[in-house]
Amino acid sequence: MNILDKIVLNKKAEVQAAKQNTTIKELEASAFFNRQTYSFREFLLDPARTGIIAEFKRRSPSKGIINDKVSVEAVTTAYAEAGASALSVLTDIDFFMGTNADLLKARQANIIPVLRKDFMIDEFQVIEAKSLGADIILLIAAILTPQEIDKLASLAKSLGLNVLLEVHNLEELERSINPNLDAIGVNNRNLADFSVSVETSFDLAEHIPDEFLKISESAISNTKVIRELKQAGFSGFLIGETFMKQADPGLAMREFVKGLK
User: What is the DSSP string of 171-240?
Assistant: First the structure.
């Protein structure tokens, strides 16, 4: 059993426990549930912004603790001020030290799109994401069937959420294309063994239909790579550890962005 299998097994139990503690009606009563979500496309393609989806992540299964000394409010607002097009906030607690409260805090502190970064396997989580103030949900092709992707993406769109599908190879991409997706992200990190290679994005770029936003995720540590990815058709760049491993992630992003100008 690889790391991804362990995460999904744990997530199934976590979701069942959440269903016991909170009803759909309670989620729908959230102050954020009926808010108008921000358009992922609009912010990502805004020339005044960077295309960077800046991630708040305390820990990862492969690296252990990355940075647990900073607050989600301080980091995400600094990301937004540095030109982030969107924010990514981990809500998985057992493997990433994330919480639903992190997402709530990021939403309250910012006026740009927020992605709920988690392992979505159940419709309950989609409704929960909307109640927490998310604008975007992540669907990971490696852990979902095409039918599950269709079900979760359809529900998300009915709630006004943007949908980012994450793929790791051509097979996942070809079996997972769905009209309810807004963006397709290529994860340069293999979730089975956590090895990384940005070449994954370049290999898949031409296979992603042009109607979807193209996002490159992970293994982006310099602005030269972003310029090359843009030439390959990518408009979004999810960056987490490059910033989070610094004592001041917001400052790290500001310095990084200088290289894009």
Answer: HHHHHH--TT-SEEEEESB-TTT--B-THHHHHHGGGS-TTSEEEEES---SHHHHHHHHHTT--EEEE-
The CA angle 183-217-258, to the nearest 5 degrees, is 105
Q: Per-residue pLDDT tens for 79-129?
A: 999 999 999 999 999 999 999 999 999 999 999 999 999 999 999 999 999
- Rounded to two decimals, the pTM is 0.96
In the predicted structure, residue 194 carries a pLDDT above the cut 80: no
Q: Where are the domains of the chain?
A: 3-258
Q: CATH homologous superfamily for 3-258?
A: Aldolase class I (3.20.20.70)
Specify burial of residue 18 (Cβ count, 10 A radius: 0-12, 13-18, 19+): middle
Q: Which of 180, 189, 234, 242 is nearest to 44 (CA)?
A: 234
